[in-house]
Design a protein that fits this description.
114 residues; mainly alpha; 2 domains; three-stranded antiparallel sheet; 3 helices; 10% strand; rod-shaped
Length: 114
């Protein structure tokens, strides 16, 4: 159990974002994974709930942090299509979008919009 707490604390400390989605996802995932791991560890194999909880918490924390990262529009989750085709420029005949993090506008292929 101590290993799970150390791993969770390290992950939370490393996953600092401005939105907090990664942190919330990691914390929620660690708790849910720890509970699920304890139940599974208690009922499967040698019945060791502590090691099951540690493994479940670590896997849950990583999965939750990734889910939070995706919620922020990062971590490779459809970055080619995030915010695309928000606006149409009739002059150039191309779609462009506004990047919420920088506030700048870009064409679908990533080129800056004039």
């Amino acid at each position: 159990m101590r290993t799970a707490l150390i791993a969770t604390a390290a992950l939370l400390a490393a996953a600092c974002t401005q939105t907090g989605n990664m942190e919330r996802g990691a914390a929620t995932g660690a708790v849910l994974g720890g509970v699920a791991g304890a139940v599974i560890g208690n009922n499967v194999g040698d019945g060791d709930a502590a090691s099951g909880a540690a493994i479940g918490a670590a896997i849950g924390a990583v999965g939750g942090a990734y889910a939070g990262c995706v919620r922020d529009g990062r971590c490779g989750a459809g970055q080619q299509t995030v915010n695309t085709r928000q606006y149409y420029d009739q002059r150039s005949g191309r779609y462009y979008f506004r990047d919420p993090q920088s506030g700048q506008y870009f064409y679908e292929n990533g080129q800056p919009y004039p």
